[in-house]
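Q: My labmate handed me this sequence with no annotations at all. I'd like to see what the chain might look like in three dimensions before we decide whether it's worth expressing. Could you predict it?
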Amino acid sequence: MRRAAADALVALDRPRPRLGPIGGGRASVQPFRNVVLQTLRPPRVRVETTAGVFHVALTCDAAPRTCVNWMQLVRQGFYDGLRIHRAVPGFVVQAGDPRGDGAGGPGYRIRDEGNLLPFWRGTVGMARAEPDTAGSQFFVTLDRAPHLDGAYTAFGRVPEADWPVLDRLTEDDRILGAVVLPSGR
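A: Here is what I predict for the chain of 185 residues:
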C-alpha cells in the first residue's frame, strides 16, 4: 500500500518518499507469527443460509488479521442464526450483527487493513461505522463498487458459481451455519 502511494506521488511529479519500517516500539513477534501460520494456506468458508449455500475463498495475503478474526468468529459459531440485516439489490448483502439492526458487533474492534483489492461482484469486505471500528459485520458486493476500493478491508471472494445464492438473499434470510473448510477443498 505504501509502495503504491509512493508510485502515485511520483506520477504527480512529487518526490518519492523514503520507504522504511513503520515507527513504533518493539513488539513481540509471536502474535505476527501466529497470524502468518494461520493464513499460509488460506482456507475457504462454507456459509449455509436459508437461501442456499455460498463459499468464501479468503485472501489472507491481503488482510491476514481480518481473515484470522473472521475465521475465529466462524469457528465459534458466532454467525450461526444471525439474519441478513442489509440486502440492497445491485449493491451488497450484509450480515454479522447479533442485534440485527446494523449497529451490533462482537464486543471488540479490529483495525482496518487497507489493501488494493477492488470490490468486484462477489468481493467480501468488513463493514464498519468509521475507520478501525470493524468487528464481525461483513458484506458481499453484488456488483462493481469502486467507491469502496481502499476504504474498506476486502478479505475474500465468493466464486461465480455461488452468485445466484447471493442474488436470492433478502433481509428475511438467516445464516444457518458457517464452517471453515480445510485448505484445498
